[in-house]
């Protein structure tokens, strides 16, 4: 496992007490993140189950907007959970949270809230401007993260 502070430096190459502590830290962090991924997976399955249940119940309330509102919220929530799940799995793979993925999670979450607000007629002009500004910053951060992504080091 590479050290987050010194790319290319592996915890296993450190010796002594410092190396032992850092290896313990790395293993503990991996266990905790693995547990969080498992919890996220359970949450994702539960959310999809609720979504399917809401689809079934929405057919009975098609004329009323109640069932459809819940359905829209649930679908968008599943997308947010999928993006969060991807963030955790990327952390397990790369031992860092990539700005590109984190900005995508934030974009999906902001869009979820915007869509829910628009569907419920709760979004005013100032809310739209603020949301547009936040989305512009997040999209710019995502573009910068892709444009200036760290290149893999060539083996010597």
Total helical segments:
4
**Poorly predicted residue ranges:** 5-9
- Give the tally of structural domains: 1
The beta-strand count equals 0
What composes the largest sheet? none
Order of helices and strands: HHHH
Whole-number average pLDDT?
79
Our Rg estimate from Cα atoms comes to: 21 Å
Global morphology: flat
Structural class: mainly alpha
Descriptive overview:
The structure is a single chain. With 156 residues, this protein is mostly helical. It is 75% helix and 0% strand. Helix 1 (16-58) packs antiparallel against helix 2 (65-94), helix 2 runs antiparallel to helix 3 and helix 3 runs antiparallel to helix 4.
Which helices and strands occur, and which strands form pairs?
Elements: H1 16-58, H2 65-94, H3 99-119, H4 125-147
Concise synopsis of the structure shown:
The protein is mostly helical and 156 residues long. The protein contains four helices and no strands.
